[in-house]
Amino acid sequence: MVGPDLASRWPLVGRDAEVAAFDRAWSSSGLQAVMVWGPAGVGKSRLADACLDRAVAAGFTAGRATATAAAAAVPLAAIAHLIPAGVDMRDPVAGFAQIAGSLAGARPAGAGSGGRVLLVDDLHLLDGASAVLLRQLMDANLVRLIGTIRTGGPMSDAVAALSRGDMVHRIDLSVFDTKQIAEVLEAVLGGPVAGRAVHRLATASNGNALYLRELVLGAVQDGSLAFDGEIWHLSEERSVATQALAHLVEARFAAAPETARPALELLALCEPLSLEDVQAETGPGELAHLEAVDLISATAERRRTTVRLAHPLYGEVLRAAVPTLRRRHLLEAQIRRAQDRGEGWHGDPRRIVEWQLAATGSADPGQLVQAALLARYARDYAQVEALLEAVPDEAHTARSRLMLIEALLELGRPRDTDQVLAAAEADVRSERQALAVLLIRANGMALSDDPVLDPAGYIDALSPHISSDAGRTALRHCEGAMYVFAGDMPRALQLTDDMDGSLDGSPNPLLTMFAAVMRGHALTQAGRGDEALALGARLQAEFLRITDESLPKTVGATVENILAIALCTEGRLADAREVAQPAYAEVNRAAIPVVRCFLAWNLGSIAWLTGRPAEARRWYAETAALSKTYDIRMIRPAMRGLAAAAALLGDVEAAERAVGESGEHRHLFGAGWDALGVAWLCVARGDLSGARRVLAEAAERTRAAGMAPFEALVLTDIARLGAPGAVTARLAELAESCDGPLVAAQARLAAALHAADPDLLLASADELHALAMDLMAAEAAAAAAAALRRGGEARRATAAAQQSAVLARTCEGARTPLLAAAKTPAQLTPRQRDIAHLAAKGTTSKQIAESLHLSTRTVDNHLQTIYTKLGVSTRRELAALLQEHGDE
């Protein structure tokens, strides 16, 4: 999607408010100048260029100048090329008169009437003589000025007078926030960008527009920022800095004296550090200069001053340039300072051990394990792996190996755990160790793509080590959790029936928490959402109560995910989104792909139910990208969800590709969601009867598995696709057994469609809209419009059709057969609609007959009736009419 002209296509995105402010100011009478203020790298020059273009479009004649420190030493050097030939500036009064006369005689001044505008970049560096001359020209209304000024930079009194005043409009630019960066990336790259890529680029650039541009250009060039056909994602292994960016950063270091370089290097290796530690490498004068030129930042906290590099990229560039022996010298000196002082060694052993490892490649095994524990609690699983990989094999214990396996699982690499897990199992000597191994096995099961899962086999292998009553209870609960992944919800609920969410007395709090989360999932799938939400609330309280390292912080996001699923399944979609989005942002920052993958899928499903297929497609694409990058068992649900969303948008090719890529991977979320991709692909192809068959088969499977909400989901789609009578009774039964308003609303929609009662349909539309399910609400209003039209109530039909159109505007271009009912000029029966869709796709009468189990003659008779109702005479005209009305 990105060609060689990417650099030239970098847009002015995220600055709409500033451009609008310029337009308002520029149209004001008496305006003399617009000044764009901001720190380095925020895009001041680019915004000023855009403002200059708009001034030229308004009829102004443009000039440009760039002020520099070198030019400032020579009066008028920066704007010499703008002074008319022959002007003698040795007499300032006469010189100004000559310039003023020349400008006044050339073009009349005034906004929109061919006045002059001058852009001066880095105005703060302008010499005093140039500033005085420009001030006089502005006061005489002979020129307007657009200038860029670096915030905090030194400037002369003459420049300060030029840049301020009642007739000078000021625009302040700050660094981009994450939302603006996402907008920039999507505009530049021409497609959605994965949340993790946005976060990494936002963190690396720190909102600096220039650095962001170089990061993106470099990443696209080397292929680490790549488009997979649906979404852009950034390789986790890649260092974000490029050679061009390193040159830019090194140019910033030129402002630092050579004697300050050791302090910068030490900060790059060890930041944040105390002021005392940094002063050990350079003097206070040098540090004050580094702060003045924005290379470091210092923060006072009570009696301690903490020093950091001013930008994340500075550290990355400096670290890459530090020679090996110098690196070791700096690190060992810092370790000695920390040990001699006594601080940090007891308060933060993790950092000391990390410095030792970076300096020499080894450290005390016990200290490595202790540091890994602290890194685990901080959710830094990449560092947990690095620390534990440095532990010699003979020094490992079952505990350290299990911690390493947990890190590998959290990093989405279950296949890397086999050898370590075998060694850990061989080291099991106690009940506690056995339960820890069992938890790892259960987590591995969650990520496994193995079509045959045997919870009982895992339990039997470890049960000889379990002797206490509490241990046997934990063993049973963990077995129940495993049956969730095996797809046996009744068995999962039976084995965990006595769980109350309390961690008191548990021999392994993390295992108990894990089993309780899985019980919450099983309750949700069984339609017992109220119980799932109550359990989730108790688990949240327990998580907040437990503060030691036994519960890593990822557990909180996992609990929030299960709460979001329960809320979604109940129909509380706005609440589900409010829970899931912050949790996703948290694990996104922490680089934890597994929980992020599940949360992304959940957010896609929320978007699907709210009728936003484009948003759903983007979340499903992110889930798929994570599943492929890491070894996570989410490829099938992600690709099937993506297929459904693409089909709803009319992108048949993408839907077909997604269904093909879903393959035979296992599907954690059951046949309900699994069928949607294939069914809506059938709809997009015009095969409504085929779609209903796929959904009917899925309904049977979900019913057998006891997954009531998912059964209701597919039954509702059968009703939406023309066969409400076949599902109304069963949906009414499910509405009685499922918690929350969702299934009941779906049942009422099916009943209203079956009765073709406009009043019931309009009531259903209102109910669904209240649940934020605007696509189904729009369909209900569309069906009401069609029923009213048939009944001769033209005015009410028009109003219902308008209601449907208003609701559909929020649905991102979704196309469904029911939506077309408000537009189609004549109403077709469900059978006629099936035949019309297939015929419009070019399917022959014989093929239609075989698909629908009819005779060819019956199909032809139906086609003639369809042509008569719709006022067409050929399949081509039929296809054009259906496309015109969105019924394709």
> Percentage of helical residues?
55-70%
Strand order of the largest sheet: 2-3-4-1-5
Q: What's the story with the biggest beta sheet? A: 5 strands, parallel
* Quaternary state of the chains: single chain
Mean pLDDT: 86
Distance between the termini: 28 Å
- Bin the strand percentage: 5-15%
What is the count of DSSP helices, taking H or I runs of 4+ residues? Answer: 44
Q: How big is the Rg? A: 34 Å
Return residue spans where pLDDT drops below 50 for at least 5 consecutive residues: 108-112
Coarse shape: flat
Structural class, from secondary structure content?
mainly alpha
Number of strands: 10
Structure overview:
- The protein has 888 residues and is mainly alpha-helical.
- The protein has 44 helices and ten strands.
- The strands form three sheets. A five-stranded parallel beta sheet has the order 2-3-4-1-5, sandwiched between helices. The protein has a three-stranded antiparallel beta sheet with strand order 8-10-9.
- The model is unreliable at 108-112 (pLDDT under 50).
